[in-house]
């Protein structure tokens, strides 16, 4: 069993008291020195007090423990599927297992904090680090992150949830301000962090490079204190992204505990002077030192001496994870799985079949323990019944030549079926650089078109970390999205192609038809250091729904070698108060001939929202394994928050009483069952009536309705039901403070104040 949130919080409470006692003994010099790292990957020790140095390393999909300083070669470690891949498994248990394995590798290398996971939303498919992030949906990203953190931390290794917050583009990432309204921040860009913090308590959170509405994330007291600690109950420490400290004094005052990498005495001296000058209260210094010290002590106590890890076992886990992340996008005529009962000639085309691409570039780049290729693994699985022919088709940079294409076409013609590996070259997907286009390299598209005209039995296997355009999708019979699947992806692809594993992944992000259809087009990436999130809450499928745009493949979509049916949706209570939990049950049945797993998705829609809301939002999901003919009942529990929107004037989540549709199905565009429930007004959380409230808002308000007739009369209106509709709308849509002027002072300010006081 993994440790529960309570027990980890409990443990940190003990360390916090120890940390407080130690802090009381530290000099100002010692405290300020601890606030900045000792080089790139360690904290400073305070030997006099027995405070050890703590070691941190990247993350997220494998350990990158750098040998030597800076960004250099790292120790061999298992490279698991990157985040966009693993999120497509929608399997929280699987990612938790990966977390455990990652922690074992950290323990074996003496690493105490693993820098991950990354939960930033995919505002655009062009985001350079999309491969490192889970999803365009905060619930999917948050749940995957929480399970990852619980897995890692269950083995005594900390995590660093990153990059907090609204870090959604790479271009000029250290200087750009993400400008977005509070509702968008609360409903789209923060919830994945919130879910991960509340459900898994990461030992640290990494503050991003960018600023949010012009306040740097590392200096943002609202984000670091008010929201992270006070609202969500975060108990760990905040570390800067590498080089994200701009003003060390502002950082400490905002709640930043650790600057990474260390800046020697550069910021230390400034902070020290600021403390002496009273610009940083000593109590504030302790506020940031204590959680850091508590984690250092906890990490020290959790170290396992002489730990080792089983590279073979982890490689097998990486293979299973990669296979479960693969999304079958198309399978016309059941071309897949390839059947090797009889001898078959298969043309494997595309350099990725022999020289796999399996991760992105940048700080997450792992030095793998081993690498499998689809070419070798297919031979192993298909045995003597397969004759493989191979053609590279393109070179490393994605370009091709007439000769390369001709050779590929020849091999395809001479085979029963062609499997063509296409995707993005390494230079297209890297931290620090956003993609400039949604397209595959021209060479890959040319290759696909040419091979298709020679061999209609064509399977395209895609290797990419984020959505791409597929202009030939309607003509290629089978398409497999294999993502950047980690070191064992070659084996995993072979597993799926041969049917050894039935694919069960579903897209963790929408695949648009063209870049022009995407929500942040044409503003992404911002080139003037002002990233204005004009699309607001309409990101990913929320946008395609609102604009009635059909994506090429929708969020949550994925096929299987079997089929599933949905029946008997039961939602209870059908009518209830907004504080009541809603229980949802549905039966899912495997109606095909082979074992398989289905990802059941639950979306909620408010039928008549008061404010503009997405057509539907994912609120829960479950992955269910079923034998042929087997069915299972799947249960979900929904809470008030699942129906709420963020009400900025109230600065709180609000459920508006009314009808809500519960939609259950196989993808965001394939919702098989629906039931509408009614949520009744809650006395506990009514709209707060103020001078700015509209007359009509008094009509149905629990306390306000008592004054409605008086106010109506004050506006000079008789029985409102008798008045014609335009006049009534004119008056009812007026802010209530206008009543004094409208009544020429007969309705007094004093009376209005009296009424409003009764509303508080
Ligand atoms: C990245 C972080 C990473 C850190 C340390 C930064 O440039 O943004 O994700 O953890 O470097 O390598």
Folded structure, characterized:
The protein has 760 residues and is an alpha/beta fold. The protein has four domains: 4-302, Glycoside hydrolase, family 3, N-terminal domain (TIM Barrel, Alpha-Beta Barrel), CATH 3.20.20; 311-508, Rossmann fold, CATH 3.40.50; 564-680, Sandwich (Immunoglobulin-like); 695-758, no CATH class. It has 22 helices and 27 strands. A hairpin with a 2-residue loop joins β7 (211-212) and β8. α4 (92-109) packs across α5. The longest helix has 21 residues, at 5-25. The relative contact order is 0.10. The model is unreliable at 1-10 (pLDDT under 50). It binds beta-D-glucopyranose. Beta-D-glucopyranose binds at residues 58, 115, 162, 241-242, 363. Beta-D-glucopyranose (BGC) binds at residues 58, 115, 162, 241-242, 363.
Key attributes of the depicted protein:
single chain, 760 residues, alpha/beta, TIM Barrel, Rossmann fold, Immunoglobulin-like, 4 domains, 6-stranded mixed β-sheet, 5-stranded parallel β-sheet, 22 helices, 27 strands, disordered N terminus, binds beta-D-glucopyranose
């Amino acid at each position: 069993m993994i440790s529960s949130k309570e027990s980890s919080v409990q443990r940190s409470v003990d360390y916090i008291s120890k940390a407080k006692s130690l802090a009381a003994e530290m000099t100002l010099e010692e405290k300020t020195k601890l606030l900045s790292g000792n080089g790139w990957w360690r904290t400073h020790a305070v030997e006099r007090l027995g405070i050890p140095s703590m070691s941190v390393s990247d993350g997220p999909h494998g350990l990158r423990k750098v040998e030597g300083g800076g960004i250099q070669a790292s120790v061999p470690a298992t490279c698991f599927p990157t985040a966009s891949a693993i999120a497509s498994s929608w399997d929280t248990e699987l990612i938790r297992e990966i977390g455990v394995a990652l922690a074992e590798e950290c323990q074996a290398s003496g690493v105490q904090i693993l820098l991950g996971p990354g939960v930033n939303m995919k505002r655009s498919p062009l985001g350079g680090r999309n491969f490192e992030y889970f999803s365009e949906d905060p619930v999917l990203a948050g749940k995957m992150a929480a399970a990852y953190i619980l897995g890692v931390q269950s083995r005594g290794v900390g995590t660093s949830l990153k990059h907090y917050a609204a870090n959604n583009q790479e271009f000029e990432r250290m200087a750009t301000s993400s400008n977005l309204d509070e509702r968008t921040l609360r409903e789209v860009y923060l919830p994945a962090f919130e879910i991960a913090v509340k459900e898994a308590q990461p030992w640290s959170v990494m503050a991003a490079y960018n600023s949010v509405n012009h306040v740097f994330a590392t200096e943002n007291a609202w984000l670091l204190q008010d929201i992270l600690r006070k609202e969500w109950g975060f108990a760990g420490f905040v570390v800067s992204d590498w080089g994200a400290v701009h003003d060390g004094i502002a950082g400490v005052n905002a709640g930043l505990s650790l600057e990474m990498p260390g800046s020697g005495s550069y910021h230390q001296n400034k902070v020290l002077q600021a403390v002496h000058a009273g610009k940083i209260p000593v109590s504030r210094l302790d506020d940031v030192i204590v959680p850091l010290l508590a984690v250092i002590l906890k990490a020290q106590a959790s170290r396992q001496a002489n730990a080792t890890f089983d590279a073979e076992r982890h490689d097998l886990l990486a293979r299973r994870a990669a296979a479960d992340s693969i999304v079958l996008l198309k399978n016309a005529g059941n071309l897949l799985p390839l059947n090797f009962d009889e001898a078959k000639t298969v043309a494997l085309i595309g350099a990725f079949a022999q020289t796999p691409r399996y991760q992105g570039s940048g700080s997450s780049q792992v030095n793998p323990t081993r690498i499998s290729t689809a070419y070798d693994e297919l031979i192993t699985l298909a045995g003597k019944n397969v004759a493989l022919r191979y053609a590279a088709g393109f070179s490393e940079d994605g370009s091709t030549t007439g000769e390369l294409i001709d050779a590929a076409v020849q091999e395809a013609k001479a085979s029963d079926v062609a499997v063509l590996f296409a995707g993005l070259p390494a230079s297209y997907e890297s931290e620090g650089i956003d993609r400039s286009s949604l397209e595959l390299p021209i060479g890959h598209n040319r290759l696909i078109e040419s091979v298709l005209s020679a061999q209609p039995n064509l399977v395209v296997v895609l290797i990419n970390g984020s959505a791409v355009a597929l202009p030939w999708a309607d003509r290629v019979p089978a398409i497999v999205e294999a993502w950047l699947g980690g070191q064992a992806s070659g084996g995993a692809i072979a597993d799926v192609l041969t049917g050894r594993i039935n694919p069960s992944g579903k897209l963790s992000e929408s695949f648009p038809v063209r870049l022009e259809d995407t929500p942040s087009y044409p503003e992404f990436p911002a080139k003037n250091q002002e990233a204005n999130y004009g699309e607001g809450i309409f990101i990913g499928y929320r946008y395609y729904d609102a604009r009635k745009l059909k994506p090429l493949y929708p969020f949550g979509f994925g096929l299987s070698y079997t089929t599933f049916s949905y029946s008997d949706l039961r939602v209870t209570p059908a009518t209830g108060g907004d504080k009541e939990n809603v229980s949802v049950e549905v039966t899912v049945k495997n109606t095909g001939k082979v074992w398989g797993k289905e990802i059941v998705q639950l979306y909620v829609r408010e039928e008549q929202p008061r404010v503009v809301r997405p057509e539907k939002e994912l609120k829960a999901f479950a992955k269910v394994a079923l034998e042929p003919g087997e069915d299972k009942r799947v249960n979900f529990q929904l809470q008030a928050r699942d129906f709420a929107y963020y009400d900025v004037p109230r600065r709180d989540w609000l459920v508006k009483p009314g009808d809500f549709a519960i939609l259950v199905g196989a993808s965001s565009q394939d919702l098989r069952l629906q039931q509408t429930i009614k949520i009744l007004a809650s006395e506990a959380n009514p709209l707060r009536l103020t001078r700015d409230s509209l007359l009509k808002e008094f009509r149905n308000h629990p306390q306000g309705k008592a004054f409605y007739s008086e106010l109506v009369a004050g506006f000079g209106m008789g029985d409102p039901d008798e008045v014609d509709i335009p006049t009534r709308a004119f008056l009812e849509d007026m802010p209530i403070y206008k009543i004094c002027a409208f009544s020429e002072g007969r309705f007094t300010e004093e009376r209005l104040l009296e009424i409003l006081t009764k509303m508080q």
